[in-house]
Write a structure and sequence with these properties.
six-stranded antiparallel beta sheet; alpha/beta; Beta-Lactamase; globular; Rossmann fold; seven-stranded mixed beta sheet; single chain; 14 helices
Length: 403
């Protein structure tokens, strides 16, 4: 879901990364490793990630699978030289102190990349994620139409969740772009690092990068409410301080977007509650019930009709029934039932309903659907036509595939 599509323009150069990162010096004859050539192959082969480590050839992630390039193993001096070319002095200092660093680079004529540099076995290693210059729309990402409605909500906390590489950042960028096209809003983002570059259309978008524009998430978020925001995007909720600012902002009339590394809506709500000590959890349940707007959970599933992946998407909308259950300490959360009850009226959907839709359109295989299903046995029964006659919540996701 994330591949560069256009060469950079001068204003695309990230202020937090080295200027002209990957310039001709990266492929100088003195080194056997041509960084720009490897990035070009990554884009040509529609790779999402590039891994570089000593003793192995460059490795691409293509449609979720790792594939090593037919190139010589990388040497320590090559990866050390690359660090000097793509990192600013400040980033080099950070890496020397912390043994890891995050930043973004723009490579002229090729694309933009999120970079993590880290140390393993005493040598430098890299993980690069391709970031498109052109933000895709919600429809182009094949996300459910209800995501457009969620993006245009006036207030509340919207959490986009999933494992690493499930398309969270891409989905968030699409929602910010949708707001940019349909609202006159002041949008403040706090990111580490900035990935997608947004240009003002109808909204004013101010993107702040941790390390370059602000000292830390906490520092930026302590002052964000003084910047007259309508919409706030927090790159990731990493700690209690960030969560508290997000909840407060959402509860005081702002629309707040952020991400969590959780697998579904149930785990997301439990994770938020678990940030707090047991004696505070009753209070935070009330706060979350009031502030939450929606949880969008993503899983990328390989296509069977052509190369690529599609998003299986679970969506929980914070309806009155959901709010009541979040508040009630005496009840355990039963998100699957709440989603089932809200499918027709509110546009909620489960992972299994989403998978059924892709499967019946012959876009994903039965094996992939079963692998990613939350309840494989129930999914298998539904494929075989075994279902409750009164359950109409699957009608929009299932069609006759007997032909």
């Amino acid at each position: 879901m994330a591949n560069p599509a256009a060469p950079p323009t001068p204003q695309d150069a990230p202020h937090g990364g080295a200027p002209n990162a990957g310039a001709p010096a990266a492929g100088a004859p003195s080194s056997g490793f041509n960084f720009k050539a490897v990035l070009q192959r990554m884009i040509q082969q529609n790779g999402s990630d590039l891994h570089l480590k000593v003793g192995r050839p460059p490795v691409l992630r293509i449609n979720g699978e790792l594939e090593a390039l037919d190139l010589p193993p990388l040497r320590p001096e090559e990866l050390k030289a690359l660090a000097e070319q793509i990192m600013t002095p400040k980033q080099v200092k950070e890496f020397a102190e912390q043994k890891e660093a995050d930043f973004a680079i723009g490579v002229p004529g090729i694309g933009r990349f999120r970079v993590n540099v880290y140390q393993q076995r005493g040598t430098i290693a890299y993980a690069l994620r391709a970031v498109p210059y052109q933000v895709k729309t919600i429809a182009e990402l094949m996300l459910p139409p209800v995501v457009e409605q969620i993006a245009l909500r006036p207030r509340g906390l919207v959490l986009v969740t999933g494992i690493t590489g499930s398309g969270k950042s891409t989905a968030l960028a699409a929602m910010i772009q949708h707001i940019n096209e349909h609202r006159h809003a002041n949008i403040i983002t706090v990111e580490d690092p900035i990935e997608f570059l947004h240009r003002d259309i109808n909204s004013s978008i101010n993107q702040r990068e941790v390390g370059a524009d602000t000292g830390s998430f906490g520092q930026a978020l302590r002052r964000v409410l003084r910047q007259d925001p309508d919409v706030i995007l927090i790159g990731e909720i990493r700690d209690l301080e960030t969560l508290e600012v997000a909840l407060k902002a959402a509860d005081t009339g702002h629309l707040v977007f952020s991400t969590l590394h959780t697998t579904d809506a149930s785990q997301t709500i439990n994770r938020v509650i678990s940030f707090y000590a047991p004696h505070q959890q009753a209070e935070v349940r009330f706060m979350l019930a009031s502030a939450l707007a929606a949880v969008i959970s993503l899983r990328l599933v390989p296509r069977c009709d052509r190369p690529g992946r599609v998003p299986a998407c679970e969506i929980l909308i914070n309806t009155a029934a959901v709010r009541d259950q979040i508040r009630d300490m005496s009840k355990s959360l039963n998100i699957p039932d709440l989603i089932r009850e809200g499918t027709v009226q509110y546009g909620m959907q489960s992972f299994d309903q989403s998978l059924m839709q892709w499967y019946t359109k012959r876009i994903i295989s039965y094996e992939s659907a079963m692998f990613f299903a939350s309840n494989p046995s129930e999914f298998a029964l539904r494929v075989q036509g075994v279902e409750g006659s009164s359950d109409t919540t699957w009608d929009g996701f299932q069609r006759d595939i007997s032909g």
